[in-house]
Amino acid sequence: MPNHQRKLFIQLVRQNFVAGGGNQITLLSRQYAQIGTGNVAGVATAITAGGPGAVFWMWFSAVLGMSTIFAEAILAQKYRVVSHGKYIGGPAFYITHGLTPKIGRSAARFLSGGFSIALIIALGFIGNATQSNSISSAVTVAFNIPPLAVGIGLAVLAGLIIVGGVDRIAKIAQFVVPFMAVLYIVGGLVVVAMHFDLLLPALKVIMQDAFTGQAVAGGVVGTVIRYGVARGVHITNYVVPAPDDTNKSGCSGIDTDDGINAAVADGARVISISLGGGKISDGERQAIAGAVARGVVVVVATGNESAQDPSDSFASVNGTVGVGASDSAGRIQSFSNYGRGLAVMAPGDRITAHDFATGQTADFYGTSYATPIVAGFVAVAMQRWPQASGNQIIQTLIATATTGPTGQPLINPHGLDTTDPAQYPDTNPLLDKFPGTEPTAQTVADYADGLLATESVFANDPAYTYRGTDPTTITAHPDRTALGTSPRYHKKGGSD
Asked: Is 478 a domain residue?
């Protein structure tokens, strides 16, 4: 720092922290303004949009920001004025007084006025809206408090502080901001310590991803998906080898229906299936019917044969959410299957995942990798809207999807997160995508009411209880029946 700048800085420090008073409030307020929602929500938003590489550019902007903040603080002190015994200043003052000798008083006052109006709009409306929305969203998710109640509470607290004038604002800020800053720093250090083994790999990923273009400009669904969608969701893997499967390591010959039934019995709300090939069995169709009847969202891959609705794809089963693969521009991939079985597309190219063969991460492609992305966003939506049924989440997923460049529906995570599913009916909109094939809407309704009397349902679903009045079924399965307890049976004019 040159000598004249050093002297000016020392002079300002002496004036503000030795003399105290309004000078101290002015300079401290510049520092308080740098700690807030942007440090949390802003960082998360940047990483979501641009991936890990966005962290590098936040470091870069932080260095520039510190320089501009220092310059702003110096200018604010240099061109401050005394009003009613207190110092006042800021951008409007140093724009007016600093630029008047160079561009004239009228032009300087015009720029000052324009800046003031923009500042009122940015901080008075947009900025506060962003902060209050971030706070209300966090409180709602954590404590299930309605956003309106959070907003009213924030408005009341802010009003009580503001009516006290600048002195009360400064006193509150002097107490709250240091505590908040310490808590933020300590919390960050704790997180780093807990994951210290990942620090160097994270730095490597940040530097590698920083110059991709997406990190600078942000993306649509992009890089964040490569590193996880629903991080807080409990995930259980079901691998059920068939008796004749000697490999025991892959997915060849697994009894998928047993896996589905086991997941449903364990209370799963979302089931993700990335399988293809082979004829879909009656047991698998029935297991899916049971899952759908219990409100479980079954997300499946459409397959990678470039074919229209192949009959051996799980997407050919009514009630399932068939997922196709898109490229970075939202176009359907050339290998992805398509047709009525495709409910939505998600990125399916260069998806970073764990390679169990090598123990390392690698890039993969296919509808098998697009499928868990959709399942993850469905899980996030269930966390966001805990009162919504699985059917309503599916309705929202389809209703909010955008149309990709090639005409197929493309998942819209933002729409899924911000659209209340309560406005949609509690019915699965995909039960009739292949009319006349099982499971039909009637089959699912019978399953839910306990009115299916087929032997296969008893063989494949240990949790199934028959609730009708068919004497043959009751005799054959005396331990799996609840005579005449079906909800539909007890409706006016009951049926069986």
From this structure: no
